[in-house]
Design goal:
- By secondary structure, this protein is α/β, with parallel strands linked by helices.
- It folds into two domains: 39 residues; 188 residues, Rossmann fold (3-Layer(aba) Sandwich), CATH 3.40.50.300.
- Helix content is 53%, strand content 16%.
- It has eleven helices and seven strands.
Length: 253
């Protein structure tokens, strides 16, 4: 049997679509289509695919309320664990908290084994539809893979990102932590993660429903918020790292 082409192929395709799909048209404000397209392409989707996923996720959340994946992000030494403690005192629902550094330190295993334990815990939460919180530097691709899977399975994704302007301040805080018996992190790794931190944030943003940015130079101060593909900087304090992130996002539009 020959392959159909031209009008015959179009007719066959239309017949197939009519039999298997419903058509839904939406109207958005002028210029918003390009914003949707940018966010969709950043996640590897077409506009239709992105909107369909968004609808499926909303339906799932409505029928499975409260399913949350919370990310506490920031390179080593910015204060992620301290910030998690602050959220706990505010009665924020964090579900199961997964911190690979604490897992490694508390069990006495190698960092590689601690990482495997954290990944297994995350996998278990996702399979059992349990809300969970992950502390992460956002380095590499693992968090993005987790976020994409969580998103496709109806999780609402929130991120709290903690930043500092200077890598030496991160190293100083790590040294103070080690002096008190805490875990040590390679200076080489810290400097590498610091230099890549803006890219790491940009890679995860399209998958987040909401992101709150905090500077920790002198206590946790909220400096920006990200929603619907837009970063809004607070007027009071503008650390260099959040300005750099804003300019990078602006240049990509």
């Amino acid at each position: 049997m020959g392959i159909k082409s031209g009008k015959a192929a179009t007719k066959a395709k239309n017949k197939y679509n009519a039999r298997n799909y419903d058509r839904v048209s939406i109207v958005v404000p002028k210029g918003y289509k390009s914003d949707i397209l940018a966010v969709a392409e950043a996640g590897g989707d077409s506009i239709n695919g992105y909107i369909t996923k968004a609808i499926n996720e909303r339906i799932y959340r409505n029928t499975n309320p409260g399913l949350k994946y919370t990310i506490i992000g920031g390179i080593n030494g910015t204060g992620k664990s301290s910030f998690t403690g602050v959220l706990k005192t505010q009665a924020v629902d964090l579900g199961i908290i997964i911190d690979v550094d604490k897992l490694t330190a508390s069990t006495g295993v190698s960092p590689i084994e601690g990482g495997k334990m954290a990944l297994n815990t995350i996998k278990d939460c996702l399979e059992k539809k349990i809300s969970f919180t992950q502390e992460t530097t956002l380095a590499g691709h693992r968090t993005k893979i987790t976020a994409r899977y969580a998103k496709e399975n109806g999780y609402y994704i929130s991120m709290f990102y903690i930043g500092l302007d200077h890598v030496d301040e991160c190293l100083k805080r790590i040294a103070n932590r080690v002096a008190r018996g805490g875990h040590k992190i390679s200076e080489k790794d810290v400097r590498r993660r610091f230099s890549e931190r803006i890219n790491s944030v940009i890679n995860i943003l399209p998958l987040c429903d909401e992101v709150y940015f905090f500077d920790n130079n002198n206590g946790f101060v909220e400096v920006a918020e990200y929603r619907n593909g837009k970063l809004k900087i607070k007027d009071e304090i503008k650390p260099q790292w959040i300005v750099e992130l804003y300019e990078r996002l602006l240049s990509a539009e």
